[in-house]
Amino acid sequence: MKNSWLRLSIALGLALVTACNTRAGAEVPGDISAKTELARPAPRRIPAVEAAPTAVGFSVLSDLKRKGGVEENGALVCRKDKCPSGIVAYGPYTRAVPPGPRVATFRVRGEGVSKLDRKVAHLDVYDALNKQRLALRPVKGSELPDGQDQDVELAFTAPAASKLEFRIGWMGHGELRMYRVDVR
Q1: Rg of the chain on CA atoms, in Å
Q2: Which of 47, 97, 136, 168 is the most exposed place for a label (fewest CB within 10 A)?
Q3: Is-contact 108 179, C-beta < 8 A?
Q4: How far apart are CA 166 and CA 66, in angstroms?
Q5: Does the pLDDT at position 164 exceed 50?
Q6: Average pLDDT of span 154-174
Q7: Is the per-residue pLDDT at 40 higher than 90?
């Protein structure tokens, strides 16, 4: 019995040494072939380029809540006869925005406001869970050329736990068209 345990130990030891030497590329003398390949897992592939930042988009008409205004050609439109001044679109109280530095891009258009050097709108990002405004940007009429869509950017930092809303306020001057908010 001692001999069989001894033979098994020697055989296992020799197999281990052979396996280590074969992996290292060394020749192994004896009747065990040095050409025996051990099964190796395929190497893990690591991408050379990181993925692009996550983009989340919201339509003012279908994703945000509204206080006044009318729908025209895919936009929420505020003008004196159709919309009270103040916050006119807000929401969607989303958790879909990953934490960290972000930029919200509001697509808007002004009509009859380009000659005004005063605030015609304000944009903000609000965290409803933590009851905290993360960013605010007033928009002057002179920033909105009449009849041209403008992408107005607002930088903010999204907290790890949040329910974000993107708010658009209208000051009651001229006409303001609001289309969408994209976050990257």
Answers
A1: 32
A2: 47
A3: yes
A4: 12
A5: yes
A6: 95
A7: no
Quick one: tokens of 140?
């002057």
Token pair 């006119």 in the structure block, residue: 88
Return d(Cα 58, Cα 90) in angstroms, integer.
11
ω into residue 159 within 30 of 0, thus cis? no
Which of 51, 83, 57 shows the shortest CA–CA distance to 70?
A: 83
Distance of CA 76 to the CA centre of its chain: 25
CA-to-CA dists, residue 130 to 51, 97, 119, 134, 184, angstroms: 29, 15, 28, 10, 21
Q: Which domains does the chain have, with CATH numbers?
A: 1-42 (no CATH), 56-183 (2.60.120.260)
- Cβ count near 157 (within 10 Å): 11
According to the 3-state scheme, what is the secondary structure of the chain? CHHHHHHHHHHHHHHHHHHHHHHHCCCCCCCCCCCCCCCCCCCCCCCCCCCCCCCEEEECCCCCEECCCEEECCEEEECCCCCCCEEEEECEEECCCCCEEEEEEEEEEEECCCCCCCEEEEEEEEECCCCEEEEEEEEEHHHCCCCCEEEEEEEEEECCCCCEEEEEEECCCCEEEEEEEEEC
Q: How confident is the model at residue 68 (pLDDT cuts 50, 70, 90)?
A: confident
